[in-house]
Structure formats: C-alpha cells, structure tokens
Amino acid sequence: MRKLMIALASATALLASSAVAQEKIKIGAAPYGLNAEFMQIWAAAMQEHPAVKSGEVELTVFDGRYDALVQQDQFKTMVTQKYNAIIFAPIDVDAGAAAVQSAVDAGIPVIGSNTRVNSDLLTSYVGSDDTISGYMEAKTVLDKLGCKGNVVILEGPVGQSAQISRLEGNKKALAECPDVKVLEDQTANWSRAEAQTLMENWLTAHPKQINGVIGQNDEMALGAIEAIKAAGLDEKSFAIAGIDGITDALRAVKAGEMTSILQDARAQAQGALDLAIFYARKGDYKPQSDIWATYKDMPWNDGKDKNYNVPWTPVTADNVDKLLATRK
C-alpha cells in the first residue's frame, strides 16, 4: 500500500508539473494601427505562428488606431490582465516610452517590432533599418532622374520612428544630388487617400515641374500615382518609389509604374513572437518560426541579442512574380 501511495504521489506530481509546463501563455501584440495592408500582413503572420496555431500561445492583437493614447490604454489593459509578454509597434517614438515603462514595472517583457521607441527598457527588438530603406528608395528616384529635376516627398506620421529614419535616409541621398530641388515635403500619414489629395494639389501648384515622388511607404506612392493618372498624365514619365512591398505596389512595379523595397512583415512579426515566448517562458523555449532559417545573417543566438535586423529586399522584375505568389 505504501508503495502504491508513493507511486500515486509521484504520478500526481508529474501531472502537475506537466500541466504547468503546458500552461497557455498570454501575449499581446500592440501595433500602431491595422488600416493598411502592411500591418494587416504583420498581424496575420502573428496568427499563423506555429505556437499560436497549436494553442500554446493565446494571442491578442490590438488596433492602436494611430493614436499614442489608445496604445497606452491597451498597455494598461494588458498589465491589469497580467499578460506574459507584449509585442509593441508604437505610433510615436517618444510617447511609447511611458507604455513600455508601465509594462516593465509590472514585470512584463516588451519586445519591439517594426517601429522603434525611445526606451532602453525593451527586452529585444525585431525590425529593419529604416534609414537604409529611405536612402535606397530616394536613390532609385534620383538615379532615374540623373540627379537633376524636382521631387516631392510624402512622409509618414510625424514622430514615428519610420518617418524619422526614412527622412534621414531620403536626405542623405538628396545630399548626393545638389541639383535636385525638393518642391514639397509633407506627411500623408501612411495613407493612400491623403497622399492622393496632396499630390493633386501639388500637381496644380507646380504644373509640369514635378519629376519624381519619394513616398516613404507604398500606400502613399500609390496615392501619388492615382493623382497623376487622374490629372491625365503618364505615371511612367515620373520617377516614383515606395517602401513595404504591399500587393498593389508589387503589381505597380510589374507594370513599370514605380519601384519598391520589401519590408518583411512576416519575419518581423514571427521573430518578435518567438522572442516574446522565449522571455515569457524565461528562456525555456526554442524558436518555432522558419524565419530564422530564411535569414542566415540574423541568427537566433539563443534569444540573447538586443536587436535583430531583418534585411530589406528590393523588388525587381526577377522576383516580383514570386513575391506576388505569396499573397495568393
């Protein structure tokens, strides 16, 4: 009987230990907004992560609605409900710091993804260097113009890290072409509709003077193309560039209307989620996403790195069909 009782006690302990090990963890993803396709791809990639599909992770994706106060309220909710980890893509590089502080004070690790925040408290970050993409896109426009002519710049939301860094890259490229004049430079808040309205106004204000469009994302570049077409002009006579590699932009690249640089939303999202699980499990976790095998120059390194840099991929005639196939 005594042996039986010991065996039962051992079995019960093992079951309890197994239950703890398999306990579902709660992770919240707080992107700045879900209106545009890029962040929709990012959010969908989160849901497709193996740990979410298997039920190991209970994932909640919030919509920040492009509002720093909304994001702060979402952090309060996640802190109150004792989430195990948070993935953060802030709308504002400075305002997001208070949200990170609140989570860290509650003992919740915060993994940055896609956009940055001015805080040293992030546990880790997975994203791409926006200064590089800003330089790359501006250079494609300037190269097509032969470093001569006039351009306009469509910026992202003022105060977001991508807007700040891409503008820095834009200006670096422009400094190499002193004969190029910037006729207009204004935010269109990542919005295709806002960019179309701005471009319509600029075409009227500067008739036959605009030669190139530097759109800090694809949505805005596409909005500029719509305005050009609506004005009865040939969009192929302009040098137009965007960033992200969203589906409509891939089609526009294939049609010869613009250039684009792919920002890998899936890699940023799933990489951040692997890190969030790793820290929620206090290191007792191996990455499940295949993105670490895809990007050999971005090794997992036991989850110990502070920054994981996902490289940019220029969209070309050689790879555009393959990229489009991934959207079907």
UniProtKB/TrEMBL annotation:
Would you name any one GO CC term?
Answer: cell envelope
Q: Which PANTHER family match?
A: D-ALLOSE-BINDING PERIPLASMIC PROTEIN-RELATED
Q: Which domain of life is it from?
A: Bacteria
The leader peptide range reads: 1-21
Q: What organism, scientifically named, is this protein from?
A: Rhizobium johnstonii (strain DSM 114642 / LMG 32736 / 3841)
Q: What is its main location?
A: other
UniProt keywords (A-Z) are: Signal
InterPro entries tied to this protein: Peripla_BP_I (IPR028082), SBP_2_dom (IPR025997)
A Gene Ontology molecular function term for this protein is: carbohydrate binding
Q: Where in the cell is it found?
A: Cell envelope
Pinpoint the Periplasmic binding protein domain residues.
Answer: 28-281
Key word Signal present: yes
Which residues fall in a coiled-coil region? Answer: none
Record-stated family:
Belongs to the bacterial solute-binding protein 2 family.
Q: What is this protein called?
A: Solute-binding component of ABC transporter
Respond yes or no to whether keyword Signal is given for this record: yes
Pfam families assigned to the protein according to its UniProt record, in alphabetical order: Peripla_BP_4
